[in-house]
Design a protein that fits this description.
Helices cover about 35% and strands about 20% of the residues. It is α+β, with helices and mostly antiparallel strands.
């Protein structure tokens, strides 16, 4: 990722690139989003897009986690793009809140010391997992296997919170422990398979 994309908005008189073009320019896969939601993305920052107005910097992951935890009725939205600060604290972001899921992905991209090819491979792998997650969540929601107001909350970040948990609408988020990030991809898919099979969803012990 060039610093020109990350550090500055489009010059006056120049149209901002589409979200798809931004990812294509970095030779990165586009985050897995339903087509109608992807079509609703609008530019809200120098190099990031969202389906709703967002004032906070995507790099400040904590604010987005706190919002989702405080608002179980938060309307569905997506945010994608690149944000950060300094020379090496830059990341690709993919945030998705929808019935049954609050997913926050923040992985290194564009920093001065980030090796592009390993980073590109990790992003592709995590986005593929995110696609599987969303498909399973949709299946569980359609079958009414996830209680109303409950979400699987997932934070996959190299810069902030990392882990996952089930969080219900009336639970105190501060009191619900997170499952550790180790083995998170397999564990979350297994948890959703359990939900689809009719096993009760439970917070971490």
């Amino acid at each position: 990722m060039t610093n020109a994309i990350a550090h500055a908005p489009a010059p006056a008189g120049h149209a901002a690139p589409t979200a798809q073009a931004l990812f294509d320019g970095e030779r990165l896969p586009f985050p897995p989003l339903p087509a109608p939601l992807a079509a609703s993305l609008r530019p809200w920052g120098p190099a990031w897009f969202a389906t709703r107005p967002v004032d906070a910097s995507p790099y400040g992951l904590g604010a987005f986690l706190a919002e989702a935890e405080a608002r179980p009725d938060l309307p569905e939205y997506a945010l994608v793009g690149f944000d950060g600060h300094g020379t090496n604290s830059w990341a690709v972001h993919f945030y998705r809140v929808a019935p049954g899921i609050a997913l926050f992905i923040q992985l290194p991209w564009g920093g001065a010391y980030t090796e592009p090819e390993p980073a590109r491979a990790e992003i592709a792998d995590v986005f593929a997992w995110a696609g599987e997650l969303q498909a399973r969540v949709q299946q569980a929601v359609d079958a009414r296997k996830i209680p109303e107001g409950m979400r699987i909350e997932i934070a996959a970040s190299r810069f902030g919170r990392a882990g996952w948990r089930w969080l219900g609408a009336h639970q105190d988020a501060a009191a619900v422990p997170w499952n550790p990030p180790g083995g998170m991809k397999a564990a979350t898919l297994r948890a959703l398979d359990d939900a689809i099979a009719g096993r009760p969803v439970q917070p971490a012990a």
